[in-house]
Design a protein that fits this description.
This protein is α+β, with helices and mostly antiparallel strands. Strand 8 and strand 9 form a beta hairpin. The longest helix is centred in the C-terminal third of the chain and has 30 residues. The C terminus is likely disordered.
Length: 342
């Protein structure tokens, strides 16, 4: 009988140790945590990813231009109503936001939330990082009917600082155009704006002769690519959703767990975003595969296996402790015969 109880203790000790080790690994390893939580699709066709959004991949979701965008539309429309082409409108909006962010008091990074609530925090002087800025930029574009999308840049195998950049579809140019609303620039080659994948290829092949880096006032601000980009662009993921008002609505930000929003909002942003990925509207991250960034399928399999076994172990440990509270494995007998005699 005692052997069986000892075996149970050994098994539960294994599961507890596994939980502790995997918690540490997921916390310390950006690669492991992201590959485990993200829904990743791999595509190697640049042409497929650069199609007109009306003809492109059918599981891309763009923010519908509705009443929930009225705050953004009313603010930005008077600024761009006289511009005919999308490119000119977008650059003017980017410059407008650049000036707005410059008024930040640099107190703290704002808390990730719905676009409207993040905008309120900016107006209070909080700072926005590249992810927040890209979301707000995309929302302003959606309010005037311009489609945009976000790329998550993760260096080599998630090694180093991550970055978020944007693309918008310029119908007057019939192409996607890269723009960085955190480092405040876009890129042209022979006066032709480049998409992100075009820009990426130029960097990685060192074909930079005719590249020009422009500020939002249109001037050439430098002839050299910003230093981090050579590593940043190697591992790139395209988000399949830019309907940020819908997916980050304050009442639905955590999906089925939104009923616990006031408690979840107290957690760090990284944990809150992870909960949103797991329980909110499905987000797909499209990994662009080429010679510089080979398939991640073996690593994805390992990360997800560890994660699912982590969940299973958590269930086992919880069940064990519930049963333990009802009936301890080694019951303590407090009868008179078992106590020390004075």
């Amino acid at each position: 009988m005692h052997r069986r109880k000892i075996a149970k203790l050994i098994i539960i000790t294994f599961f507890v140790d596994y939980l502790i080790i995997t918690c540490f690994l997921f916390f310390k390893s950006r690669m492991l945590s992201h590959l485990a939580l993200w829904n990743i699709l791999e595509i190697s066709s640049q042409k497929e990813l650069e199609q007109n959004p009306l003809d492109g991949i059918d599981y891309f979701y763009y923010q519908p231009n509705g009443d929930n965008l009225s705050t953004f539309r009313d603010e930005i429309y008077p600024l761009v109503k006289d511009n005919k082409g999308e490119f000119d409108k977008v650059i003017k909006i980017a410059r407008y936001l650049q000036n707005r962010y410059s008024k930040s008091k640099g107190l703290h990074i704002l808390k990730w939330d719905s676009p409207r609530k993040m905008l309120e925090q900016i107006d209070k002087g909080l700072d926005a990082n590249c992810f927040h800025r890209a979301i707000l930029f995309s929302t302003y574009l959606s309010s005037i009917g311009i489609k945009s999308r976000l790329w998550a840049l993760e260096n080599e195998r998630f090694d180093g600082t991550s970055h978020t950049i944007s693309e918008f579809y310029a119908t007057d140019l019939n192409k996607w155009v890269f723009i960085d609303t955190a480092m405040d620039f876009y890129v042209t080659e022979n006066e032709r704006p480049l998409s992100f994948l075009e820009f990426r290829k130029k960097i990685l092949t060192d074909d930079r002769k005719d590249l020009r880096i422009h500020g939002f006032d249109g001037s050439v601000i430098r002839s050299e690519i910003p230093c981090p980009f050579r590593r940043l662009v190697i591992l790139a993921f395209l988000r399949n959703r830019s309907d940020f008002v819908d997916i980050y609505d304050s009442n639905r930000i955590y999906g089925r767990l939104s009923v616990f929003k006031k408690y979840l909002d107290k957690l760090p942003d990284s944990i809150r975003i992870a909960i949103s990925y797991l329980f909110g509207k499905k987000m797909v991250f499209i990994h662009y595969v080429d010679d510089y960034s080979p398939t991640l399928k073996p690593l994805i399999f390992i990360a997800k296996t560890l994660f699912y076994f982590f969940i299973a172990s958590l269930v086992v440990v919880c069940v064990f402790f519930i049963l333990f509270l009802k009936k301890p494995i080694f019951p303590i007998n407090f009868s008179k015969n078992d106590t020390f005699q004075r």
